[in-house]
UniProtKB/TrEMBL annotation:
Descriptive protein name: Xanthine dehydrogenase family protein subunit M
SMART domains documented for this protein: CO_deh_flav_C
One Pfam family here: CO_deh_flav_C
InterPro entries, per database record: CO_DH_flav_C, CO_DH_flav_C_dom_sf, Diverse_Substr_Oxidored, FAD-bd_PCMH, FAD-bd_PCMH-like_sf, FAD-bd_PCMH_sub1, FAD-bd_PCMH_sub2, Mopterin_DH_FAD-bd
The keyword Secreted appears for this protein: no
Keyword Nucleus in record: no
UniProt keywords, alphabetically: FAD, Flavoprotein, Oxidoreductase
Residues in FAD-binding PCMH-type domain copies: 1-174
């Protein structure tokens, strides 16, 4: 099929962009990796496309105030290859899993987050890290926490006239470790289930752990798994081998999977199968993140 007729504008400034978005039926075009298939299948019929690729202030990738700030037209491939991404290790772990190289070369970071596909990697990363979304319209600018941004499948807190101009990811600190994993039938396919993990190991304190699961609900589902990590460490000791911690976490993560997987299942996987995937992925990635966190803590104190 071909897209339904639409008007096309390519503003050169942010002010012009938000003015165009205030028109009824306007839709943002950035990388087009999600929008173009929707148009081609006539699942969406916007009256006007607002191409934001000529707006220079939206192509900014900066690190300041303890955060990595990613502008609306920054491509996924650019972020993957930029040295600045080392400040947010979870992004570096997740980006290679997104589609294929050609998709990442056109797809934008903000576009994937704004599209809010339940099986997409970047919304889960934003949720796990508690990133901040910056939304801009002709009415002004506002910030929304990731936990309040995703409201349902392909649905967010952004109003129709608002543009996601920037996402602010907090930089990793000493004693933090990360894990990311997903399972798909083929590399590049949307994940049947996936997890993003952040572990913080403080001196003399019990570690804290946050896990976000995707592909298992309408939105990324985050859970505090600190107590379960602590229970696994009680079994293995405070400095376990990664393989030992992985095994100790196994049955504990089954309880988490029961809580977070609320999909009704589909032709690709049943809820029970997704729970098994989530439990296995969580055990592996939490063990990995804890090992990285303890190394990071030791390195910061040596």
């Amino acid at each position: 099929m071909k897209a339904a007729p639409f008007a096309y504008v390519r503003p050169g400034s942010l002010e012009e962009t938000v003015a165009e978005l205030s028109r009824d039926g306007a839709k943002v075009l950035a990388g087009g990796q999600s929008l173009v298939p929707v148009l081609a299948m006539r699942l969406g019929r916007p009256s006007q496309l607002v191409d934001i690729n000529a707006v220079p202030e939206l192509d900014q990738l900066t690190s300041r105030d303890g955060a990595l700030r990613v502008g609306a037209t920054v491509r996924q491939r650019r972020l993957q290859n930029d040295d600045l991404s080392a400040r947010v290790p979870l992004l570096r772990l997740a980006l290679p899993w997104i589609g294929h190289r050609e998709i990442r070369s056109r797809g934008t970071v903000c576009g994937s987050i704004a599209h809010a596909d339940p099986s997409a990697e970047l919304p889960a990363v934003a949720s796990c890290l508690e990133a901040t979304m910056v939304l801009t319209s002709a009415r002004g600018r506002r910030e929304v926490a990731a936990g309040d941004f995703f409201s349902g499948a392909l649905s967010t807190a952004a109003e129709p006239d608002e543009l996601l101009t920037e996402v602010s990811f907090p930089a990793a600190g000493p004693g933090e470790g990360f894990g990311f994993g997903e399972f798909a039938r083929r590399h590049g396919d949307f994940a049947l289930a996936g997890v993003a993990v952040r572990v913080t190991a403080g001196d003399g304190d019990r570690p804290t752990a946050r896990a976000t699961c995707f592909g298992v609900s309408d939105v990324p589902v985050s859970a505090d798994v600190s107590e379960r990590l602590g229970a696994a460490l009680d079994r293995t000791g405070a400095a376990p081998a990664r393989a030992d911690l992985h095994r100790a976490l196994g049955d504990l993560m089954e309880e988490v999977a029961l809580d977070v997987v609320d999909t009704g299942g589909d032709s690709h996987a049943s809820p029970a199968y997704r729970r098994r995937l989530v439990a296995a992925l969580l055990a592996r990635e939490i063990a990995r993140a804890y090992a990285d966190a303890t190394r990071s803590r030791e390195g910061s104190t040596s």
